Amino acid sequence: MLRKIEHFGYVLTDQTGWPRFWSTAWSLLAGAGLAPATLKKRLLHIDDFYAHVESTLPPTHLDDALNTLKFEQIEDLLESYFVSLRNVSKVSSSIGERWRTNLNFCRDISERLARSDATGARFADIAVRLERLERLYGQLRPPKPQTVTFVRALPAAVLEELYSNVVPGAEKNPFPNPTTQWRVYATFLLLLHQGLRRSETLILPVDFLKHERSAKGVQYWLNVKATSQEDDSRYSTPSIKTVSSIRQIPVSATTAQALMAYAENYRGNQNHSYFLSSAKNRPLSAEGVNYFLRLLSRSLSKTALKMLEDRTGMHSISPHDLRHTAAVIRMKQLLSKGDPMPEALQKMRSFFGWARDSTMPQLYAKAAFEERLATVWSDEFDERTAMLMELPE
Questions:
Q1: Beta carbons of 252 and 258 less than 8 angstroms apart
Q2: Rounded to 5 degrees, what angle do the CA atoms 361, 366, 368 make?
Q3: Which letter does DSSP use for residue 206 in this model?
Q4: Residues in domain Tyr recombinase (predicted)?
Q5: Which segments of the chain are extended strands (E)?
Q6: Which of 136, 150, 250, 371 has the smallest CB count inside 10 Å?
């Protein structure tokens, strides 16, 4: 079981609640340079291996096998785990990562033990066994899921209903408390209008919105950057995905005013430094954002839900779906303004925090050229969509 310990981080525990020894050692050593979200994901993969080992007959303890360097047993356990990953009815996208993570985990712990003085004359034999471990299992690949790559941009009618329901005070707003309505609305604007990732939204500091006066009027922008984790008690600790994710994003005056309204009137006095706060005066969590969107999805009419399923294959809206939608609309607007394709692609990389060689913008360029999107996304869609179509320079 994965647990988060305050001022320490993520730890795997056994069924009695005691930390698992070698997974804890691995997270402190090999996992020290990983982002919190990546470390959490890999520890969950390792926990899956621990659970598999303990389900074998007779029950086995992985820590014991690693501690004594019983390579025959370790190899048997890895083979059994690989077979279990192959024999699944539905192949998930994480199956290959789970296998590689646990193979590297066993090899890394064994290498560290092999370097200790306790192994003595066995070092040469251990080195041979490690080489055999990599040779036997390094090239094995679990089955890959058969997926079709498509852009999950929301249909116009679905987005129109979302706007109608998420606006504070709306008749069909699924959140009865006005403070919660504004919290959800601010989150919605950051995900859709600014195209932020969920984790980027959750690490914004309270003073993230900047402005300056010029001949053109007041210009607003926000900085996406890494922040201190000291006061972050959330189970799923949000973090910056890559170096390319650190960026400045222009913000329209309309969006900025709505965000400031939440900060000044509904955020309240908090004992943390993050912009978005929960009802319990703690930093808003990833689970909280998912909950918001689940309720918003349930508030949609049957017609909108049917259209969502027909167009995208989805039954509910996720935070990343809003980012996808923002990217499709931004790409279409850049092309409509007459920007050459290479320039439009680079602007997309800068705005959404992709690496310079990322191919993600091409997916949105393809979607922007589709007749369906070209006809439904127009500057005259309505007042609310016009807010999204604003593209500050």
A1: no
A2: 90
A3: T
A4: 153-378
A5: 2-5, 9-12, 209-214, 217-224, 247-251
A6: 371
| Ranges in the chain, pLDDT < 70 | 89, 91, 93, 117-124, 127, 139-140, 142-152, 228-231, 367-393
Q: What's the confidence (pLDDT) of residue 145? A: 60
User: In what side-by-side order are the strands of the sheet with 209-214?
Assistant: 209-214, 217-224, 247-251
Query: Are the beta carbons of 130 and 78 closer than 8 angstroms?
Result: no
Compute CA distances 324 → 97, 150, 262, 309, 318, whole Å.
24, 10, 25, 16, 10
Query: Closest by alpha carbon to 184, among 273, 237, 259?
Result: 259
C-alpha–C-alpha distance, residues 38 and 30, integer Å:
12
Contact 136, 75 (CB under 8 A): yes
Reduced to 3 states (helix: H, G, I; strand: E, B; else coil), residue 195 is coil
The model's pTM: 0.71
Which residues make beta-bridge pairs with 223? 248
Interacting residues of 359 by C-beta distance below 8 A, sequence separation 6+: none
Distance (Å, rounded) from C-alpha 97 to C-alpha 314? 25
Partners of 283 in the β-ladder: 277
The pLDDT of residue 180: 96
> What span, in angstroms and rounded, lies between the C-alpha atoms of 323 and 290?
14
Distances in Å between the Cα of 243 and the Cα atoms of 1, 250, 350 are 31, 19, 12
For residue 98, give the amino acid letter: R
Evaluate the omega torsion of the peptide bond into residue 176 and state whether it is cis, within 30 degrees of 0.
no
